[in-house]
Specification:
The longest helix is centred in the middle third of the chain and has 60 residues, at about 480-540. With about 850 residues, this protein is of the alpha+beta class. The chain folds into five domains: about 1-10 and about 125-305, GAF domain (Beta-Lactamase), CATH 3.30.450.40; about 25-120, PAS domain (Beta-Lactamase); about 320-440 and about 475-505, Beta-Lactamase, CATH 3.30.450.270; about 510-540 and about 730-858, Response regulator (Rossmann fold), CATH 3.40.50.2300; about 545-720, Heat Shock Protein 90. Helices cover about 35% and strands about 25% of the residues. The strands form nine sheets. A seven-stranded antiparallel β-sheet has the order 1-11-3-2-6-5-4. It has a six-stranded antiparallel β-sheet with strand order 9-8-7-13-12-10.
């Protein structure tokens, strides 16, 4: 507010603290003393007050000028100085024997003692009682506007200026007159604002160090200090001087305003410059030093009361916010849907922080209450908020500062306070404030306060102080520091609510998942048992006629193929299964040599329907090739490859090489029908089979909806060599030769099938039991050397049998139709488990693992 009490001259000043170039006001005199109390400098007007010129004083001991009693008092006061900015005062002090009394201020500057003196006014009022009375009047004010107004009235009554204003700084450095006490007929400054540039940063720092400054007469000619600089060429630092003159620019400001005298008193709150008491008089005016000191003391007490009131208001505000937080927490705990109810949420939050509307964004879903921006603009706001610091409340009174084009909806939402309630993904509760179109009354154009002088940018005096009105658009009422603290409290509460709901939801999901897994496991178990029963029926029903026997073998192979596919897709809870596993399983069932079937392609997964269909198709292709094609002769081989086309469909190609000459089949059997029609009919794809003389070539297109990317796999297509895995037609290893086997299985058909497999593996004897009791009796009658136990036996399980076998140190393995979902007790964790339906291969591998054999599985 340079036009009131503004900046010092910064033209040649690059240092802090600010150095005033040797001029003081003529209302008193100044002496600067060295450490040994020799006079080093004096104001040019000193002769007017002490009868000696500066030349007569420089270098003289102070004792030759002042009375001994005065020197004694001054030394005692100097000893009381504590801190860099301390000032001590003496009132009605007789400095020169027989002379008039002076009011004295003493401080330290650059290692020297600075004494400033003004003729005493002769007032000897009760300063303590006066300030107490003034503070009592302040304490009776019910609200802040009344408090500010009463402060201005009290200062004006004390020092008698024509106008006393309470001037408050805003966060952006500008200031506003928030209270005024003035004599009638001189106009009003109440509500006027002044640009931040009116009081430079250095001047603001000086206001914090020197709380009171006066200009008694704008027309007075400042007097110099002699000498102007010391031996080192440095001027005397007058930052703490009570008499120091001010910038000529500031004097011109005051004259342009018609002000004859000015006084300012700093208001410090929590160590920061909150504002000023700014005082104007329209003629020369100099309140006594004593009254000025009392007004400075009052300003300090005013600041303390102000700080207490603001703190109390903040505490009350935050207490109310905590009550609201507790209410929010309790309500949502009993009804979690309230968190997604913007009307309820807006009602409760706006009781803590004033807002016109509330937007809620949770997991990509949104809801509104009150006055809010359009939906698409709300999405843009959320995207912009995601670029701000995570986990922190964000507030702005101008959304357009972060969202381009936000001016279009500023009428409904110009400012916002965003409360994040999660980190990833970022969810928010956003409070919106509508545009506050207001006319700001500037005392002079705020946009042109700076001009350029010979030494760079500097303030130049405004010639007119008529109001400059500026319409502020696109902004809302700013959010206060207290509101931001409350928002942080609400953020913590909302996050606690979200985490609690997330924990509850997670627990419910886990329970639902466990129930679902149990159901899936039970279904898979039953399907595997059914497949096992069907295979057992077929095997046990084999006739002697060769033709019928071949038919049974074909049907058994197809059922076995479906069983293998079922095992793959149920291993991951009826989810997609890898294409490569299907190829490996079907090829391994028929082909011995590693390189007879080569497969390569991008890692992909097929959904369960496509997986089962392709299992039958590949099974028929491998079967036909084994009978008639390249896999029927030594040296023949098949290449299977697949890739994704531009539409995302999976294209699988089958190419046979090195086999006997190929002819198209003369009749179309069921196997050929499966190859030709399964993919188009079941999956909506296409199939094309070419019977070239050099070998069969087939291409299948599986639509993209049946295909997904393989998990945890990156990079280009990978070639997978097929592992060699035995042939069911080769003689199986007799790994159970000479052993007595206990087989526990509650299904007769499956038990018969398992007996055949165990017999082929060379078992000496087989004892079969369907119940726990029967199995325990069989163990007591004849101790087995190996056992295979079905886990689930009707409504019981075989763990009691396993415990008995463990006690007898008999090796055993488990069998189950539950696959990966089989749950084993702690004592049997890590036991070998064979999955149903039983096949020679999987039983042989399980026995090999159990007995630690190294024979090749046949």
């Amino acid at each position: 507010m340079a036009n009131d009490f503004g900046p010092v001259d910064l033209t040649n000043c690059d240092r802090e603290p600010i150095h005033i170039l040797g001029a003081i006001q003529p209302i008193g005199f100044l002496l600067a003393l060295t450490a040994d109390w020799m006079i080093a400098r004096a104001s040019a007007n000193v002769a007017t007050f002490v009868g000696k010129t500066p030349d007569e004083l420089i270098g003289a001991p102070i004792g030759e000028v002042f009375a001994g009693s005065a020197i004694h008092d001054l030394r005692n006061r100097a000893a009381m100085l504590r801190g860099a900015d301390a000032i001590e005062r003496l009132f009605d002090c007789v400095l020169i024997a027989g002379g008039t009394p002076f009011d004295v201020a003493i401080h330290l500057s650059g290692g020297q003692v600075v004494i400033e003196a003004e003729p005493s006014s002769g007032e000897h009022g009760d300063a303590t009682g006066m300030v107490r009375s003034m503070i009592t009047r302040l304490d009776q004010c019910e609200d802040m506007p009344t408090f500010f107004r009463e402060g201005a009235r009290q200062v004006r009554a004390l020092i008698g200026f024509d106008r006393v204003m309470v001037y408050r700084f805003a966060a952006d450095g500008s200031g506003e007159v928030v209270a005024e006490a003035a004599k009638p007929g001189i106009g009003k400054f109440m509500g006027l604002r002044y640009p931040a540039s009116d009081i430079p940063v250095q001047a603001r720092e000086l206001y914090k160090r020197n709380l009171l400054r006066i200009i008694a007469d704008v027309n007075a000619v400042p007097v110099p200090i002699v000498p102007a600089r010391n031996e080192a060429g440095q001027p005397l630092d007058l930052s703490l001087s009570l008499l120091r003159a001010v910038s000529p620019i500031h004097i011109e400001y005051l004259k342009n305003m018609g002000v004859g005298a000015s006084l300012s008193i700093s208001i410090l709150v929590e160590g920061k410059l909150w504002g000023l008491f700014a005082c104007h008089h329209y003629s020369a005016h100099c309140p006594s030093f004593e009254r000025r000191s009392v007004s400075e003391l009052f300003a300090q007490m005013f600041a303390m009361r102000l700080e207490s009131r603001e703190r109390q208001a903040t505490v009350e505000f935050e207490r109310r916010a905590r009550d609201i937080s507790d209410q929010l927490l309790g309500a949502v705990a009993s009804d979690e849907t309230l968190l997604k109810d913007p009307d309820w949420l807006g009602d409760i939050l706006t009781h803590a922080i004033a807002a016109d509307g509330v937007g809620v964004w949770i997991a990509g879903n949104y809801a509104f209450s009150g006055v809010t921006p359009p939906t698409e603009d709300f999405r843009r706001i959320i995207r912009a908020l995601n670029g701000t610091a995570a986990g922190k409340v964000y507030a702005t009174d101008n959304i357009a500062s972060i969202v381009p084009g936000a001016e279009s909806f500023a009428e409904s939402a110009a400012g916002m306070l965003a409360i994040p309630i999660s980190r990833s993904p970022r969810d928010y509760v956003v409070l919106f404030r509508s545009e506050l179109v207001r006319s700001v009354r500037w005392a002079g154009d705020p946009h042109k306060p700076v001009d350029y002088g010979p030494n760079g940018p500097r303030l130049t005096p405004r010639e007119s102080f008529a109001e400059w009105k500026e319409l502020v658009q696109g902004r809302s009422l700013p959010f206060t520091a207290s509101e931001l603290r409350v928002a942080e409290t609400l953020r913590a509460t909302l996050i606690e609510v979200v985490l609690r709901l997330a924990d509850e939801a997670s627990a419910e999901r886990q329970q639902a998942s466990a129930r679902q897994e149990l159901l899936i496991a039970e279904l898979n178990h039953r399907v595997r048992n059914i497949l096992g029963v069907i295979r057992g029926l077929i095997r046990q029903s084999q006739p002697s006629e060769p033709a019928v026997k071949d038919f049974v073998k074909v049907v058994d192979g197809r059922i076995h193929s479906l069983a293998r596919a079922h095992n793959q897709i149920t291993d991951d809870h009826w989810g997609p299964a890898p294409m490569q596993a299907l190829i490996d399983a079907e090829a391994a069932a028929f082909v011995d040599e590693r390189e007879r079937v080569v497969s390569e392609g991008v890692p992909v997964m097929l959904n369960p329907q496509a997986y089962s269909t392709m299992a039958l198709v590949v099974h028929e292709l491998v079967t036909n090739s084994t009978k008639y094609g390249s896999l029927s002769v030594p040296g023949g081989h098949v290449k299977i490859s697949w890739e994704r086309n531009p539409a995302g469909d999976l294209v699988l190609t089958w190419c046979e090489h090195g086999g006997p000459p190929v002819k198209a089949p003369t009749r179309k059997g069921f196997g050929t029908t499966i190859i030709d029609r399964s993919v188009p009919y079941d999956l909506g794809g296409s199939a094309n089979v070419e019977y070239n003389p050099d070998g069969v070539e087939a291409q299948f297109r599986i639509p993209a909806r049946h295909v997904s990317e393989a998990r945890n796999v990156t990079g280009p297509a990978i070639k997978y060599p097929r592992p060699a895995k035995g042939h069911p037609q080769t003689p199986p290893p007799r790994m159970l030769a000479g052993r007595d086997v206990l087989l526990v299985e509650d299904s007769l058909i499956i038990a018969l099938d398992a007996e055949d497999i165990i017999t082929r593996l060379g078992a000496e004897t087989i004892a079969t039991a369907a119940t726990v009791d029967a199995a325990l009796d069989a163990i007591e009658n004849q101790r087995p050397t190996v056992a295979m136990l079905d886990i689930n036996l009707g409504d019981r399980n075989s763990f009691a049998i396993a415990d008995r076998l463990m006690d007898l140190n008999v090796p055993f393995l488990f069998a189950t139709g539950y696959g990966e979902q089989a749950q084993l007790p702690i004592d049997h964790r890590g036991r070998t488990v064979v999955q149903k339906p039983y096949t020679l291969e999987n039983v042989a591998r399980a026995i090999e693992e159990l007995l630690g054999m190294r024979e090749e599985v046949g």
